[in-house]
Amino acid sequence: MPVQTSRRPQSLEPGSPGRVPPIIPTQPGPGGRGPGGGNKRTKRKDPLWAKLTVIFGAVLMMTSGLAIVGSKAVIGQATSSIDQGNLLGDAGKTNAEGGNSLDGPIDMLLLGVDARQRWAADDVRSDTIIILHIPASHDQAYLISIPRDTEARIPAFEKSGYRGGTDKINAAFFHGAQNGGGWEGGAQLMAKTIKSMTGISFDGAAIINFGGFKNVIDALGTVRICVSHEVKSHHMSMVDGKPMWNADAKKTGKSYTPVVHKKGCREMEGWEALDYARQRYGLPNSDYDRQQNQQQLIKAMAKKATDKGMLTNPIKLNSLIKAAGKAFILDTGGVPIADFIFTLKGVSGNDLVTLRTNGGTYSPNADHSKESLNELSMDMFRAVKNDKLADFVVANPNVLSTRK
User: Fold this and answer.
1) Where is the Cell envelope-related transcriptional attenuator domain (predicted)?
2) What is the CA radius of gyration of the chain?
3) How far apart are CA 341 and CA 118, in angstroms?
């Protein structure tokens, strides 16, 4: 069905009221300009499938990796293996907020879960929580991570029988998944919690399973990651030169050594890149460093997906499509995926901006049992809701992530 276009005003010409100004990089770089620079940025035209990788690439940590060239019909066929569900419940945008029209700003909730085969389906928490914001101009994409330990008032949720309470925000997914709520219930309660906390309603959502996500990276080959602080893995060890989960390594009865991520930049395979992005213990800023490392991984995957070698190798393209179909559950708010992609055709990998809450450092609540979002972070979420995020970032450049 065609995308509805009547509920929100379309973006205006540069300089017109309501137009979101382009973000000004803090440092000059290829395709960018520093403060005071006078050269207009030249946008590199990425193929359509690569744009999908950027957006649903952000779909966790996050990339769908879908490699598609062609019409909406081709995209629809290629994305048919992606599981779709109702992940938003009543946290989706109302008619007054634009409903399922994609003419205005677009906000997606991206949730990463680390579900393993030996765990029960309802015994899962979402430790990766990212808001993807695309302004009405549809020429930029912003990622904002919410700390997993943030204190939150989690609303009552009839579907799972949860009566409501105060807990760490990552527990919202767990409470929503109980008593048959499943992952859809977990995502719905998480979306409801974030909407109550920030006022942001969503156009779509995605749940990414880390296990499936590894296969997407493997289909890409490797990704270039820069390790800023050496860290010992809290999850994986090496046995006979092969990486294994710690619990599985112990069962072998063989000697094993923890995986250590050494400082420096290098190409990483899927298991290594994901393991590094999972780490928070042993890092100076704990979960905040992990958030930035996850955002770095998103950008690295988007960059690798646009590599010319991916465009010319049909085997790699097909493996990406298959891996992506098993990696996540998607909710586009009732809008066909093909329409969603074409709406975002103006966004390229170079337009992905990563932001951090609380200045990238731990911000305890009153009794130090959980975290709280400081006033600057709440102002940032209000800027998202009002589609003024670019103005906010220009005025508060310290919210920009320091990871490259």
Assistant:
1) 125-305
2) 20
3) 35
Residue range(s) defining the domain that contains residue 78 = 48-220+300-399
Structural domain includes residue 272? no
Spatial distance between the Cα atoms of 386 and 361, rounded to a whole number of angstroms: 26
**Closest residue by Cα to residue 336 from 138, 61, 140, 73:** 73
312/121 Cα distance (integer angstroms): 39
CA distance 184 to 87: 5
Phi and psi at 306, nearest 5°, equal -95, 5
The Cα 228–Cα 234 span in angstroms is 17
> Quick one: which H or E segment has residue 342?
helix 337-343
Residues facing 111 on adjacent strands: 129, 207
Please report where in the chains the tokens 């130090």 appear, as a residue.
368
**What is the phi/psi pair of residue 342, to 5°?**
-65, -30
What's the domain count of the chain? Answer: 1
* Euclidean distance between CA atoms 110 and 64, whole angstroms: 12
Q: What is the pLDDT of residue 304?
A: 78
Please report where in the chains the tokens 């590599």 appear, as a residue: 307
Neighbours of 287 (CB within 10 A): 18
pLDDT at residue 286, rounded to an integer: 81
Whether 20 is covered by a domain: the verdict is no
Taking the CA atoms of residue 128, residue 181, residue 80 and residue 58 in that order, the dihedral angle to the nearest 10 degrees is -10
Least confident of 50-59, 132-141, 342-351: 50-59
The answer to whether residue 274 is domain-embedded is: no
40 to 18, 34, 36, 43, 366: CA distances (angstroms): 21, 11, 11, 9, 47
Q: In angstroms, what CA-CA distances link 146 with 8, 197, 336, 386?
A: 28, 11, 28, 18
Q: Report the 10 Å Cβ neighbour count for 82.
A: 21
CATH number of the domain residue 357 falls in: 3.30.420.590
Q: Is residue 59 part of a domain?
A: yes
What average pLDDT does the segment 296-301 reach?
79
Q: Could you read off the pLDDT of 181-207 as tens digits, one per residue?
A: 988 999 999 999 999 999 999 999 988
Residue 103's identity, in one-letter code, is D
